[in-house]
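Morning!

This is the sequence you dropped in the shared folder:
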Amino acid sequence: MESYIAISMLNDFIFCPRSIYFHQVYGSVEQNMYHSEIQINGKSAHESIDNRGYSTRKDVLMGIEVFCEKYNLVGKIDIFDINSGKLIERKNRIVKIYDGYVFQLYGQLFALREMGYTVNQIILYDKSHNKNYIIPLPEADQGMFLKFERVIDDINTFDLSWKEFKPNAEKCKNCIYANLCDYCLW
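The structure's back. Tokens below.
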């Protein structure tokens, strides 16, 4: 049986490919046992979605499970307005728009398209600053789209014993899995 790639793992893999393995090691352990304050605060951006309290409109999809057969991705969307075709990914605080954030939106977009929806716009929403960042669609940014496909390939072929892996000291300092990692630099 083929395993699926969680859409949320796209960002995690870019942060550190080894984090995907360590996330699985924790398995069903309660997340507040190992999540940092940043992750805990980040989850708050999704509370109104998870509780279905963002909107009562029938033409707004919230927190639904999606699957993209082409890229073998599975996950949840935050908000999709069917009438306007706007797909919104909520983040608690955006300091920088990382490729992983964009790739999460791409994964959601491709899943929604496979489901027959028309996605006209993809948006990152910064909850703490109440600010929207409009992201170009993949067909409008060929370079980013090719990077997205490369990350999918890298995830599918990643080997934990990969000898060329080079840890990043700045990322290691912020990694919630650092205590498990034999490559950690802190």
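Headline: Residues 99-114 form the longest helix (16 residues).

More detail when I'm at my desk.
O.
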